[in-house]
Amino acid sequence: MKKIRGNDVILSFVCLVLGFMLSFSYQYTKDQATKRNITDRQWQKEYEYRQMLIHAQKENRKLKEELMKKQEKVRQIETSLANKKAAYVDLVKEAEQLRMYVGKVKVKGKGVEVTLADASYIPNEQNATNYIVHEQHVFAVVHELLISGAEAIAINGQRISHRSYIVCNGPVIEVDGVQHAAPFVISAIGDPNVLTSALNIAGGVKDQLVNDHVVVKIASKEEIVLEPIFRTNHD
Q1: Does any domain span residue 148?
Q2: Model pTM?
Q3: pLDDT tens column, 181-208
């Protein structure tokens, strides 16, 4: 009886241990499966998020490329408009300069006044023509002023243009059909220093006029006002 009871105790102990091991194994397997299920769900979520991020990045690159293209198009339009505006401004300036050169607009600015007068003393009446101002003298001054940068010129207040003509008509000079008597005041708008230097250069216009017995006076002016040309016969 004692032996049988000892075996029962051992058998009971073995069953207890076996039951504990089975219970532990079941719980462990269950826990591992639960963990594995959680891990699988997390991986699936991470994959979905990663795909969403990749898609968002692609869309962002696409939108960025479109934005850059639109910005480039806007820049080209702005450049084109700026060029057109600059061209229009240049055209307006050119038109204004042309109007000024042809005497169509009133102009004012710094410049010089060149006065040409007949000689005060004529030693021989027979050679009096050698001591008075002729059209070539006036033309020489006008030509020198133009090539020296004069923007507008007038003779005795009468504006001249690229189509003007100057001729002698007896004791007077005719400018575009209008007669003027000496002295002749030639007004020119431009840089006074440049114009004065050009006229006074050694062996230049002034020296030639003096050699022809013409009295020459050159004065710089802070402001010269020249009225437009109103005639129509040369328009």
Answers
A1: yes
A2: 0.58
A3: 999 999 999 999 999 999 999 999 999 9
